[in-house]
Amino acid sequence: MGNIFDEEKLYPYEGTIKGHFKDHYDCVFIALLPFFQLDRVETDKTKLKKAKLLSHEEALKKIDLLKKIPEANKDIYMYDNEGYPADEDILREGKAIPWKNIVNSSSLTGYAELNTALRTSIGALNRKFTRPDLMEKLNNFTDSESIYHPTEGAYGILSKMAIHKAFKLLGKNLIMITDEFYENTSTADLDRLTEYEFYDEIGGKDYYLYSANKEILFTIEWDSFFFLIATDHKKMDNLIASHLFEGFLCNDKTDHYWEYTVE
């Protein structure tokens, strides 16, 4: 029996998701990172996404190394979009927009196409898998409605809020927080921290959040617009009934690239 905690394998990069967790959890939920709106109309559409596609000229100004090599046939993205809202703004005036709303209003056919559109928008796919047509459908709708895109590979503030509520709902107050490379693990006691202090405890590269008794795990990876919730059936039923997270349960065949098989 493998131990994913001892072996530092808290995300299922290969194989089926449920198969990866079978020695620890019998239920896994794919939770979608929410879009959101603020109480304003955003006229600068480049601010709606954390990742910004740079022109070659912009890239030359940002990255000195590019001046020494020929113009590459590759899209270049930067993730320091200063116009993207700060957590404080999202907490104060943010309204979560579910993926189902985006699908219903953008002519995308479902979660799979929306996930592909998002991954295309950040240059995360091999060129033969990119779907600029889906990205255009998505962007046309979110631009028109001033809807901000989620940021991949990180628990956004809206997801942190839901995760905090989930831990409290399940009576899990002692929480372990581990970074992407398993170099640092810290402990957060929800009985001693305010909600906002808990949010601050989770950094951008803290990918693994779990109760001290390991009965529930939240795990994400760097290129994804979703995270995984792993626990037992009883706790999962409680979480689903709470409507804290949008998404779907994994079946026995679901893997990390679920968008190719889910719909």
Provide an overview of this structure.
The chain has 263 residues and is α+β, with helices and mostly antiparallel strands. It has helices at residues 17-21, 56-62, 87-93, 99-106, 111-121, 132-145, 157-169, 195-201, 233-242, and strands spanning 27-32, 35-37, 52-54, 76-78, 95-97, 174-179, 185-189, 206-211, 217-219, 226-231, 247-249. The protein is built from nine helices and eleven strands. The strands form three sheets. The chain has a seven-stranded antiparallel β-sheet. It has a two-stranded antiparallel ribbon with strand order 2-5. A two-stranded antiparallel sheet has the order 3-4. The longest helix is centred in the middle third of the chain and has 14 residues, at 132-145. It is globular and about 45 Å long.
H/I helix tally: 9
Q: What is the strand arrangement across the widest sheet?
A: 7-6-8-9-10-1-11
Mean pLDDT: 90
What's the number of extended β-strand segments? 11
For the largest beta-sheet, the strand count, sense and barrel status come to: 7 strands, antiparallel
Q: List the uncertain runs.
A: none
| Separation, N- and C-terminal Cα atoms | 33 Å
Total of domains: 2
H/E element sequence: HEEEHEHEHHHHEEHEEEHE
Helix fraction bin: 25-40%
Instruction: Quote the beta fraction.
Output: 15-25%
List the main descriptive attributes of the protein structure presented here.
263 residues; alpha+beta; two-stranded antiparallel ribbon; 11 strands; globular
